[in-house]
Task: inverse folding
């Protein structure tokens, strides 16, 4: 018997609010990272731990054109959101 996947709201919120902790894009929300940066990680290897899991998930999301799921409806965004 195949079980249906259930959305994990807490995991989605964590992914939507996590910021890059280092490097050129420090402080940028993961959802706002440029796709070429995520492609680079996919080729070189994602870091260990939670950050690596989130970066890998964001890579798959962007690869499949699903980043619109993280954008509030009717609210235009202007460039990467920094903290």
Result:
């Amino acid at each position: 018997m195949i079980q249906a996947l259930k959305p994990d709201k807490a995991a989605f919120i964590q992914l939507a609010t996590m910021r890059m902790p280092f490097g050129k894009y420090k402080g940028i929300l993961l959802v706002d990272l440029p796709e070429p940066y995520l492609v680079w990680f996919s080729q070189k290897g994602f870091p260990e731990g939670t950050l690596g899991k989130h970066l890998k998930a964001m890579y798959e999301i962007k690869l499949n054109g699903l980043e619109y799921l993280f954008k509030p409806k009717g609210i235009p965004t202007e460039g990467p959101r920094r903290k």
